[in-house]
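Ticket #4471: structure export looks truncated?
Reporter: QA, pipeline team
Priority: medium

Steps to reproduce: submit the single chain below to the structure queue and open the exported record.
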Amino acid sequence: MVRSACPDLLYYHLVLVVKYRRHVIDDTISNYAKDKFLSLSESYNISLVEWNHDIDHIHILFKAHPNTELSKFINAYKSASSRLIKKEFPSVREELWKEMFWSRSFCLVTTGGSSIEVVKKYIENQEKK
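Actual output as written to the record:
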């Protein structure tokens, strides 16, 4: 099990849903969105722990410092990835009625009482129904 050198890091589980729950996420789009997450997360001191997707949403487990401005990061990520996904994958634009790729809302929870391994397993098994 990997332990952080900084014990003050907090673990978060983020779920982002595609606007109108459209079925547009495949492995290619998920990997593209993940790359954008990794690029942007560096400047916010965020580290990806686990990533998985279903056809209409993604699950992200990440760790961050307590002083990380999570709402700013999430809004920046949603905005940038939405724009870039729709630019890179024109077929996605046809499935959505407006400009946004992601739903306005998101779910962000701390992993709290659950062990990181339990949350990682949960996210790993999201596609397996």
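Status: closed, not a bug. The export was complete when the record was re-opened. Leaving a note from the reviewer for reference: The first helix runs from residue 27 to 41.
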